[in-house]
Amino acid sequence: MSYFSDLGLAEPILRALETKGYNDPTPIQRQSIPALLEGRDLLGIAQTGTGKTAAFALPSLHRLAADPQPRKPASCRMLVLSPTRELAAQIADNIKGYAKNLRLTVDCVFGGIPIGKQARRLVPGVDILVATPGRLLDLIDNRALTIGRTEIFVLDEADQMMDLGFIHALKRVANLLPAKRQSLFFSATMPKSIEDLGKQFIKNPVRVEVAPQSTTAERVEQFVSFLNQPEKQALLSLTVRRLLAEKQLDRGIVFTRTKHGADRVARNLAAAGIDARAIHGNKSQAQRTAALEAFRQGSCPILVATDIAARGIDVSGVSHVFNFELPNVPEQYVHRIGRTARAGADGVAISFCAPDEKPYLRDIERLTKVKPDVMPLPENFLADAARLPAPARRPAGEENEARRDQPRGRAGGGRRDGGRQDGARHDAGRRDGGRRDGGRPERRDDRSQGGDRVQGERAHGDRARGERTGQDRGRGGPRPEGGRSDGGRSEAARHDAGGEAAAKRRFRPRGPATTGQHRNKVRRVV
């Protein structure tokens, strides 16, 4: 604790660090804390897992504790922006641990949970607020929060936050912040284009770079296997099962490029007898929190994730990282494999490379200046892959999730065909000879899907469209209201009996018999 004591940090902060077992600072902390205590803006670049959170939290807490002020309603003194919910919650937990002996309040807000509870918590004001950009702007728009009194502004994972998806939100936040503030940027990578953009938000910053940009952790052993895309799932299942049996794998993260791909990989691993959970943006916040907590506790050894989990998630004991699909952005590879070999531990990164992904691999090697060792396919791979069980189709929970994603309205996602898929309607059309109503071509709009309804629901169905049979036209009289002119006969029966009449070209009758038929028939909602 001698170095932290020499810095002059507040005694309550030193006691909290002693409780956590922090004895020596990391390189990013050693270079950042003195400059931040002076009130300078900072641009920090360091690998993931090197203690960036403590690097900006400790001097900020010292500054806030040295200048106590009454909390202002619906405002904050320190604002920390994070790109993901999980990272925001992790930063808030760490700051709470550092500030447990201080009279400072810490809150965390992000999407996926009701905004009303968060707004009520912010009514008396808060000292330190950790937020994601979307929910922060929602609270500001609802007049539940103002950031005009913010003294310290921290942007974590700045390169991703200032990417195209976040730049407009960041510009709006920057316009709402006071001109006199301390701004801090931290990230594992900082391309020059993003750095130039960051100069719009920070003034005369101190640049701290403890490792070359986009370098990977030295303790990570990197391997790559070349195979076809359909073979990846079998190789992953066999590899994970072997490593678990040999007790070489404690916890592993499998990264995919798409959300549906993550669910598919998790189902295949479960079919192979491997407990795996998926985490991505389509999951609810409760599901994401439960999956991450099970992974942290060790009850679930495999976490399948999109790149949402690659940024800043600190889970101890991750021994392996599997790149099921190589990222198309080479910097993302650095963040992925940075989930292992944390806090001085060793780690293994295994990538599966399909023929069309070789350009991505070359970009990664050019960026990291590291060429992964080639890992050949195991012996009898094809035979072992053929013996793997097939996964279940889709769990009930995922089906309900997909059903919730459909537009609300009528049953079946708003379609009048009772929710039948296109394939089912196509098969039904083939059974009816591809035609309905005696040979008339089927219309392709929603109005032609009435055949799936109960007949009683078609009060004026055929006559409203002028589809009167030859027998009806011969009588010239109107059908009974709510009934059908063919006596309720099936489609096939009318097709067989309607021979000559069906061959004639149909037309829409006009005249008094049909004039004003739908008048006053529209159901009105009061």
UniProtKB/TrEMBL annotation:
A motif (Q motif) lies at residues 2-30. Keywords: ATP-binding, Helicase, Hydrolase, Nucleotide-binding. One of its GO terms (molecular function) is helicase activity. Residues 385-394 have a biased composition (Low complexity). SMART domains: DEXDc, HELICc. Gene3D superfamilies: P-loop containing nucleotide triphosphate hydrolases. Residues 2-30 form the DEAD-box RNA helicase Q domain. Residues 33-208 form the Helicase ATP-binding domain. InterPro entries: DEAD/DEAH_box_helicase_dom (IPR011545), DEAD/DEAH_RhlB (IPR044742), DEAD_box_RNA_helicase (IPR050079), Helicase_ATP-bd (IPR014001), Helicase_C-like (IPR001650), P-loop_NTPase (IPR027417), RNA_helicase_DEAD_Q_motif (IPR014014). Residues 395-475, 481-498 have a biased composition (Basic and acidic residues). It comes from the Bacteria. Residues 385-526 are annotated as: Disordered. Residues 239-383 form the Helicase C-terminal domain. The keyword Hydrolase applies. PANTHER family: ATP-DEPENDENT RNA HELICASE RHLE, ATP-DEPENDENT RNA HELICASE RHLE-RELATED. Belongs to the DEAD box helicase family. This is DEAD/DEAH box helicase. It comes from Novosphingobium pokkalii. The lineage of its organism: Bacteria, Pseudomonadati, Pseudomonadota, Alphaproteobacteria, Sphingomonadales.
